[in-house]
Amino acid sequence: IKNLIIFGTRPEAIKMAPLVKEFQKNNQEFETRVCITAQHREMLDQVLEFFEIKPDYDLNLMKPNQNLYTLTSDIITGLKPVLEDFKPDLVYVHGDTTTTMASSIASFYSGAKVCHIEAGLRTFNMQSPFPEEMNRCVTGVVTNYHFSPTETSKNNLLTEDKKDESILITGNTVIDALLFSVAKIKNTDFVDHQVQKLTDLLESDKRLVLVTGHRRENHGQGFLNICKALKTIAEENKDVQIVYPVHLNPNVQKPVYDLLSNIDNIKLIDPLSYPAFVWLMEKSYLIITDSGGVQEEAPSLGKPVLVMRDTTERPEAVDAGTVVLVGTDSNRIIKQASLLLDDSEAYHKMSALHNPYGDGKACERIVNFIKGISNE
Ligand code: UDP
């Protein structure tokens, strides 16, 4: 059976890397190739290096001021020769990016069966000016096999009349990636210059608040509010150090560097490699983020998360209590952060909760399912 695994951004790479490895372990039954669109470049390459994955095809599509029209068409036309050369039986796409949606359409054109990893997440807001919900839904339409992280995401697909037997609940592959990384970092042979630098940066007597943010819906006023809140948290809690790896998008870089440079207990740093970020998550007391992946990973490390979004396609975390949605209102961010910084009972209750996103065996389940259908 010929598998083609396609991805383009950092979070997709992290979440697909363990699947590539799992298929490679089963190379008697599968010929597996990897194609990257490189919708992100640097941030993607760092992940590939850590997981020791060498792509077979690299469309190298990242351009300055990239727009959705050219990106979508470049992915579809760029994949044509790849699909015609390799003729995969099955194509694997992940999540909700332009790479996901455009690759699933191209694969449909080629006649390959489409497998969607992290299938069935929904915000139910198709009117949003941002493309993620459309990307998920369009991909869902051309998908043959849906791999849903949770029961909630499976139910979303059933509501859309997808067939029960085409859906498998797997847990999120990000937990597979996380556990792999935690083990690799703990290995004494592992040296990472970013981890070395972080060790020098951190002050051992201060609690660490780790911050990330990148979502387009927060660009503009959202990031201004977020920065205002972080400034207040830093000023009011001198026993806290905020470490913020700032996303490379200029809409994020500008407000963050304008408003938060030169505050002694806020350290703005470049985005981190995945192992360095995992290392930092482990060291942190509290995480404040708008990232999807981070809210799925953090509960496995026992770290409470404040999510700077108003809506979420990840309600399981809110229901389980492992995250609190705080939006981008400065006062709400400050209030919830203060609660967790000041009330150790509330803090420990939250950090002990079970992670609803999985147990690290998602990729094994996916590969076993594919073995099952190919024996039919
Ligand atoms: N991450 C990383 N370096 C960083 C910040 C985040 O490797 O400096 C990882 C993080 O552990 C998670 C993923 O990147 O697995 C999340 O990516 P992002 O927040 O960009 O996207 P989202 O998950 O919101 O789609």
Automatic annotation (TrEMBL):
The keyword Transmembrane helix does not apply. The keyword Isomerase applies. It holds the Pfam family Epimerase_2. GO terms for molecular function: UDP-N-acetylglucosamine 2-epimerase activity. SUPFAM superfamilies: UDP-Glycosyltransferase/glycogen phosphorylase. It comes from the Bacteria. This is UDP-N-acetylglucosamine 2-epimerase (non-hydrolyzing).
